[in-house]
Design brief:
This protein is of the alpha/beta class and 133 residues long. It has 7 helices and 4 strands; from the N terminus they run βααβααβααβα. It has a 4-stranded parallel sheet with strand order 3-2-1-4. The longest helix has 13 residues.
C-alpha cells in the first residue's frame, strides 16, 4: 500500500522528536523498506521555505538533510505534472488557500494514494483518502 506524505509528516518522520506517533513512524519505516512512501516535489520547496523562515531546524543543516531525506533510498518523489494540475483544477474552489497543500491534495487524488496528514483542512476533503497507520 503506497502512501503520499504531507510535508509536515515527512519532516516529523525523518527528524528526532515525538510529534509523529510511534505507531505511524514504525508503519512508515515498514512502507519505506518496500519503497511505498511518496512525496510531492512541492514538499521540497515547502521545507526550504520553512527552513528559510526559521520555522524548522533540520539535523546536519538544510542542504545535507534535504539531500538525504529526498533520496530514492528513502522516498519516491512525485513530480508536478499535467495530471496533478488537472486534479488541482478539480478541487473545490474554496478548499484550502495554501497552494502547496492544494498541490499535495491534488497529487494524492490523481495518483490514487492515501494522504498521511494531520492538517485538519486536508483531512476534511472528501475527495481524497486519508492514511491511517
Amino acid at each position: 500500500m503506497s502512501v503520499l506524505l504531507d510535508t509536515h509528516v515527512w519532516i516529523w518522520w525523518l527528524t528526532p522528536g515525538d510529534r509523529l506517533p510511534g505507531r505511524d513512524r514504525a508503519r512508515l519505516d515498514e512502507l519505506a523498506a518496500r519503497s511505498e512512501v511518496h512525496l510531492s516535489a512541492i514538499s521540497l520547496w515547502e521545507a526550504q521555505m520553512l527552513h528559510a523562515r526559521r520555522r524548522i531546524e533540520l539535523p546536519g543543516g538544510f542542504a545535507k538533510w534535504i539531500a538525504a531525506a529526498s533520496g530514492p533510498d528513502v522516498i519516491n518523489l512525485v513530480p508536478l505534472d499535467a495530471e496533478v494540475i488537472v486534479a488541482l483544477d478539480e478541487l473545490p474552489g474554496r478548499f484550502h488557500g495554501d497552494p502547496a497543500d492544494r498541490i499535495i491534495a491534488a497529487t494524492a487524488r490523481c495518483k490514487g494514494m492515501p494522504l498521511a496528514t494531520w492538517d485538519k483542512s486536508l483531512r476534511r476533503l472528501r475527495s481524497i483518502e486519508i492514511w491511517r497507520a
